[in-house]
Write a structure and sequence with these properties.
Helix content is 45%, strand content 26%. The chain is an alpha+beta fold and 350 residues long.
Length: 350
Amino acid sequence: MKTGRTLQEMAIELDRQAKAKRDLIVDTGSLRMDADESGFKLNAGDRDIFGINDIAHRQFGQHLKIPAQYYDRMRSENPSLLSSNVNSWFDKEPNTRRMLRTLDGTARAFLSDRYRRIDNFEVAQTVLPIIGNMDGANVESCELTDSRMYIKVVNPRITAEVTKGDIVQAGIVISNSEVGHGSVAIKPLIFRLVCTNGMIAEDGAVRKYHVGRSNESDDNFNIFRDETIEADDRAFLMKVEDAVNAAVDQARFSQIVERLRESTQAKIDPPFVPKVVELTSKEYSITQNESEGILGHLISGGDLSLYGLANAVTRHSQDVTSYDRATELEATGFRIATMAPALWRQLTKV
């Protein structure tokens, strides 16, 4: 499992961000994008000027229906043309309300005005005391990226063997996005001791999507909280508490382990290993470079089975730079291990 910040480091940063972030409700007709030698700036109604991060750029393009490839080309090769395009389309829809989320003077998300803010600080404040009270549980890895917060917890008191000597432990992954990249989610985690790999299961995942009533703002465009929304959020966070308590569940863990045991029986003929890795990579949107790393881990691990292939994927997750992508590969490993038998027959029919 890829390591990130320490829990203390993340707590300090969550507190800092909670104080530094600012959210606005804006009319698109009041927005202006400018570009100079220092980069792109967003003028929000003549009141504030913000930098623009990659996520906000992508969301501007999606909202204005500018194809991503063309948007990126203008951004890198002709910034003034991009600004002109964006401003022209903003002028075409002057009364469209959007939520602009900012942090440290940078626009970090451009979202619907119905976006429900369930923020990382609130989620962490809810789940960390519960984890602290779990007998034996510990935070194995956590991280804050531009797009998500992750808290990965392992409970070594709940264990099983997939094969003789191959011990796994039960855990959970709590994740959230403040910028429109995913719901609040609590998912089962399988932690493999032999190589400290983690597999993230979709089985029994609990989610809360960031959708609700339209947000209202004051005269300075700052969003204020509606009492009904706050009550609904409190009710949801109580459900999060229940989900965290239930996630490390022996019965659910046993069901997942049994599915992994089944994957150990699906063998790969040695001459076909490279082709099986290639076809599996295409099926699960794994890049060429990642595929090569996975092939190396599969061969060095010596377990030429579906289970071995899945573990090669999760092992390679530790090698990638991005914590977001590493977590995606941990989930992909479980999807591969539990793929439909018909798909496995198709991938191994080479």
